[in-house]
Amino acid sequence: MKETDIEWINERRDFIKKAALGVTVAACGSAVCGCSSNSKEEGEKVVLLSPDGELITVDSSHLHQVHKTVGVSTEEARKGIPGRKFVMVIDLAKCKNARNCVTACQKMHHLPEEKEWLQVSLMKDSPDAAPYWFPKTCFHCDNPPCVKVCPVDATFKRDDGLVLIDADRCIGCKFCMAACPYSTRVFNWSEPEMSEAVSCLEYSPETSVPARVGTVEKCDFCPDMARIGELPDCVTACPNGVFYFGDQNEDVVTNGDETIKFSDIIRERGGYRFAEELGTEPRVWYLPPVDRIFPVERGFDELPDTIKARFKDILEG
Amino acid sequence: MKITTSGSEVLRTFSPQIEHTSMREKVWITILLATIAFAGYALYLQITEGHGVTGMRDNVVWGIFIVNFMFLIGLSYAGAIISGLLILFKVSWGQPLIRLSQLMTLASVIVGPLFILLCVGRFDRLHYLFLYPRLQSPLTWDVLAVMTFLVGAVLFLYLGLIRDFAVYRDSNLKVSKWKHNLYRWLALGYVGNEAQKKTLNASINLLAIILIPVSIMVASILSWIFGMTLRPGWHSTIFGPYFVLGAIYSGVGLLIIITWYTRRVYKLEKYITPKHFDYLAYMMLVLACGYGYFTFSEYFTSWYGSEKWDNELIEKLFSPHEYGWWTFFANLAGVVIPIIFAAIPKLRKPDYLFVVAAIMVLAMWVKRYLIVVPTLETPLLPVQDTRMEYVHYSITWVEWALTFGGIALFFLIFTLAGKFITLIEVSDLKLKENEESINQ
Q1: Considering CB atoms only, which of B129, B134, B380 is closest to A181?
Q2: Contact A174 B62 (CB under 8 A)
Q3: How many CB pairs under 8 A join A and B?
Q4: Residues of A in contact with B225 (CB under 8 A)
Q5: Which of B313, B319, B422, B437 is nearest to B371 (CA)?
Q6: For residue A251, how far is the Cα from the chain centroid?
């Protein structure tokens, strides 16, 4: 087993799911092995199920938390998944700021706690308007202001609608961050903290992992998950089914529990895009916060004070 | 080489500087080098630790580095336009100012781009700008523009210097052998015969004709880095001409400062007279009015239209609790005071103008800061962050160190130029009427 890295999944639900499928035992590429060869002290033994259906015992020092998926090459990542036109629908009527999407995204992309590719803001459009929770991913605009201004083609628009970043190309000029009207992009202001196993992963614009110092990163709509036929983690992590992800060509979106026609839900529920007047043509649609399942105050339940403090202005105003 | 009497007088005035380095100069150069070395240490920190050592964060992604870039690059365009116009229109009084404004152009076009590089997170990938250029990006336009301009500015200064190098070569300047050889080599065998004169004048005029529109274009491109985005305070149709005017205006201010200083240090009262300051003040007056008008229409239209996003910015800029006092200073010292001092004859004195210009140039720097930072602090979506450094930009010592390093480098270029060339053109200087050239 020395030549083998085993994906280590903390979360119980995921563990059961994966165990049923057989734990993915990834054969270790030479680069990865070279990178992680300096062995740690031996720890406790862990029993796992191999892909062949056998129970195997491995030393926990051989286990690393690695990315769930393997990214495609940069050339492949620039083309996109053929025939797809990814779209997301976010149902504001269901959001209660559970923030599972935020943490799931951070876990998926090995982000530190303070770095949020997916943010949940408390919106209050005018003094008399009712406040509502507003989860915000990258909008993957069809007329992306960020892509226009990139001087080196590091951020690009794919045929399947996604806007991705090649962190190996990015020179870190931050022009895209200045150009994005939605404050979607974040910068690696210092050497990103990550485990050795993560830093050894092979980088792909589709996984956006591992992060690189001095480059820009953002929500990527998890195309690596789409390639293996799974939903982005924010979608599956949401306890209230707020996020629907799908394909506009097929006219279907799903939140994991229900699958609906994209055009129907937009028509019936009055779907809209944020700041349509900017002409950026986002690929993310919102369903207005009407007939809400939760009162907005529920969003403060179990919210740590540090995060509650973010909404001070709105709560006081 | 033939030289006019005033030319040879000026050469004699500058020769001590060229021939010897005084103790005072040595101290001055040491101070400048120390400042630059300290900036080098700050740069080392920025490279090794990442941009986290600056005050820039995810909302305010650009700080005073880009402010310095805009400011210096603006000055260099201004110098090219001013010297170009003085040459093209053969403005006789302008002769002693041409070299100074060309040097101002050169020094600022060398220092300015260093500051845009400081905004780049990955120095190791700078060559990607040429390997994978995308013409859609205003930043690519700017790279091309600044490089074109740099070449133009160096050539412009050099062409004007060829005649002078020939004079230095043939003069009895007591300089070391390598310096003399360098003069001879740089003079390209110029002896001042009719054919050479004609070619050189034609080249200088042609370059002036090219550089003036190039300066206007590149100043506009600089503005489009901001103007092409969708942000309030940036996304403005008048940004191109506004930047062009603002650049020339601050350039005239700096030229007044440099002229005053050079006149005083080298005792050039005979050649640079109060009349020169009068003319510079007239230029400052006209430009201040134009620049003030642009500023007014920029603020007035977005305030009157009062779109939500625009309004947030305007409130921030004019609120005394946020940027109100800075806006007040930028417009009072940057527009009102220069107009008063340039318009009233009693106040239009070299010493007053020097002080007014110094404050005005500072105000123009603050104005650039007010263009960059408040807009970045006003994104469309509310900033809901408890990390204060992500909400408000504050300048760190690393940024100050690099800024002062840049200023020191600017002065160093000027100082070293003064050790090597005369800061006023000597070869063709005609300050008195009907002045004839004589053999020196």
Answers
A1: B380
A2: yes
A3: 133
A4: 175
A5: B313
A6: 22
How far apart (Å, rounded) are the C-alpha atoms in residues B296 and B291? 9
Residue A252 has pLDDT above 60, yes or no: yes
As its CATH architecture, domain B2-430 has Up-down Bundle (1.20)
Q: Are A221 and A88 in contact (CB under 8 A)?
A: yes
B351-399 pLDDT tens trace = 999 999 999 999 999 999 999 999 999 999 989 988 888 899 999 999 9
Kindly give the residue spans of alpha helices, DSSP state H, lying in A109-232.
145-149, 175-179, 196-199, 223-227
| Bridge pairing between strands A45-49 and A25-27 | unpaired
| Chain A residue closest in CA terms to B384 | A310
Average pLDDT across chain A, whole number: 84
pLDDT above 70 (res A23)? no
Contacts of A270 by beta carbon, 8 Å cutoff, 6+ apart: A287, A288, A290
Q: Which one, of A286, A240, A235, A136, lies nearest residue B384 by Cα?
A: A136
The pTM for the full model equals: 0.89
Say which residue the tokens 């990955």 belong to.
B122
Phi, psi of A122 (to 5 degrees): -100, 115
| Whether pLDDT at B5 is above 60 | yes
Residue B23 has pLDDT above 60, yes or no: yes
- Picking from A173, A190, A275, the nearest residue to B139 by CB comes out as A173
Contact criterion met (CB < 8 Å) for B121 and A188: yes
Which helix (H) or strand (E) is B3 found in, with range?
Answer: strand B2-4
For residue A114, list chain B residues with Cβ-Cβ distance below 8 A: 387
Q: With contact defined as beta carbons under 8 Å apart, do B407 and B146 qualify?
A: no
Residues of chain B contacting A183 with CB distance shorter than 8 Å: 58-59, 379-381, 383
- As given in the structure block, the two tokens for residue A105 are 């995204």
CA–CA distances in Å: residue A278 to residues A180, A184, B248: 11, 15, 33
DSSP state letter for B292: H
Question: Which residues are CB-neighbours of A244 under 8 A, at least 6 positions away?
Answer: A88, A89, A90, A91, A235, A253, A254, A255, A260, A262, A265
Q: Which residues are registered as beta bridge partners of A272?
A: A286
Q: Where are the domains of chain A?
A: 4-64, 74-287
For residue A168, CA distances in Å to A29, A81, B122 come to 20, 21, 10
Look at chain A and count its residues.
Answer: 317
Please report residues of A whose CB lies closer than 8 A to that of B305: none
Structure token pair of residue B388: 């204060």
Residue with tokens 């690519």: B140
The SS3 assignment for B434 reads: coil
Burial class for B67, CB neighbours closer than 10 Å (0-12, 13-18, 19+): buried
Q: Which fold has domain A74-287?
A: Alpha-Beta Plaits (3.30.70)
* Rounded Cα–Cα distance for residues A84 and A74 (Å): 18
**Per-residue tokens: B237:** 């149709």
Q: Identify the H or E element spanning A133.
A: strand A132-136
Contacting residues of A for B132, CB less than 8 Å apart: 152-154, 169
Measuring CA to CA, how many Å separate B107 from each of B157, B210, B216, B412?
11, 20, 19, 9
Enumerate helices (H) and strands (E) in chain A, giving the number of each: 12, 16
CB contact under 8 A, A309 and B386: yes
